[in-house]
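TEACHING EXERCISE
Course module: macromolecular assemblies
Task: Read the component lines below, then compare them to the predicted structure of the full complex.
Student: A.B.
Group: 4
Components provided:
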Amino acid sequence: MTKTANDTAPRGKRSRNLRLVLMAVAVPAVLAGCDDDPSGKILTSREECRVQTEVSREECDKAYSQALVEHEKLAPRFESEQECNQQFGACQPLAGQSAAAHPTYIPPMTGFLIGYALSQAMNGGGGYYRVGGVSPLYRDYRSGGYLKPDGREVSTYSGTVYGKKAGDTALPARAVTVSRAGFGSSAAARGGFGRSSSSDGGGRGFGGGRGG
Amino acid sequence: MKRIVVPERPDWREQAESLGFRFHTIDGAPYWDERACYAFGLRQIEDDIEQPTQELHDMAMALVDEVAGSEQLLERLAIPREYWDWIADSWRRGEPHLYGRMDLAYDGRGPAKLYELNYDTPTSLYEAAYFQWLWLEQNIARGELGERSDQYNRIQELLIETFGALAREGRIATPVHFAAVEGSLEDQGTVRYLRDCAEQAGVQTLELTIEGIGLSREGYFTDGDDRVIRTLFKLYPLEWMFAEEYGPKLAGSRVQLIEPAWKAILSNKGVLPLLWQRHAGHPNLLEAHFEDADAGELAPGWVRKPLFSREGANIELVGLDGERLRSDGPYDDGPTIRQALYPLPRFDGADGEANYPLIGSWVVADQAAGMGIREDAGPITQDTSRFMPHVIVGD
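Instructor-supplied answer key:
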């Protein structure tokens, strides 16, 4: 078959060029456009919570803690320390990984983004905006930009960033939680579900009723 | 359709680990298995799997429309009365759904037979959509499979397209929260994968556990940071949610669920007799009936399944020779159906061991999308079954 015929052949029954961005160890830091980033503020440390004026100190501290949690879950992962250091510097092996796997390296969290809706009127809490979202950030030493865990650049400077996202108006962004764990009891009661390390073979999650 | 031996990629375990596929081995037993694969002709795929999948899906959706408006049918499916209005409302408002998987018995000849629909919490998604695809691409690159080898698999592409379309059309709120049961490696891997697809479509996502969902004073569901959950992808059965503490809060929370409330109709094995009543004799359907209290012993050639069951649990079948097979499980406390026995085909391995493949045929946003195969050493596919890749070679 000639090359031309190949080029015009049917595309086949499968997709071309699939990739993963969250699950893959090495996250390519693609500097894509970021028109859906929230308005918000980039802080480089928890100490900066004291000097910012957009959200309350308590909310800011909480945002920092939340960013750290997200950092542990979502930090870009690299197969080699060198590769990670080239982009971010001061990379460390991921804590708690299984000994069988290759060590995975993650960059330190060098900042965090507090998103808040600029369109929202000052609310009752002493003239502060509401926090609309938090993300850990990573400084790319090659570009100087602050990246989100998925590799999107938020800004090249710390400070206020602007975006068009003003949040969903149908429901409030936040509400005070008064109880938790009202879902999940069936998984526990049915026995074995959610115990992926169990030895009785019953620990496979509930899955999708695959049987025949 | 053939079962052929292909050499394992020597580094597939490391690859799996680095690509978030942490459940390739479960409880010490292999789950992903590439020591062999199933080879199909293109005609088999298009005529016997893809086209019937689309037709069965369309029949199922027509059935939802009927059931959602019928108290008698909702009752027949043992769906709790207090959720009828919520379910009907979710259907009337056209709440979008993402995906489903139907299980088909197929031996390479003749029509595939529908075992059941898994339309609320289908798993084996990541391995079918991504890792299976990677297996094919790499084996072509390595010369183990011919350059013209193909695979019936546009699952991931359609998932990304669908997330993108839903976001563009404003049919989901962002960020979308994704939740799975705490501590299940497999469920969390599946949810992480779906998040990955959503993020690739430009949709912002957050992750939490089913147990971590909270409730606010106003009746909204919240995450661990007091964010109100507006759109929730939950890898957790609707019928379980109904029975739990927060179940009665679902309607008032204004949460948008994916899969939506109306999927409670299709995740129920009662749809099998209902489909049979409406399309008796359809080549892709097996005869099925609701089992009433006075139905008597299960006769040879029939299978009993609970309306609500997962992972092949609590299935009882009687072979034509009278032999009985039963799988244990926790779903022995509800109504059941009977379905005509249609044994899985048997494909012997190189050393003569029996293998029974079951086809999982995926539907994404109402389109037949691709296929994954799970294989068991016994005729009932269970949670111990292995995932085998497939390839299309020739016509």
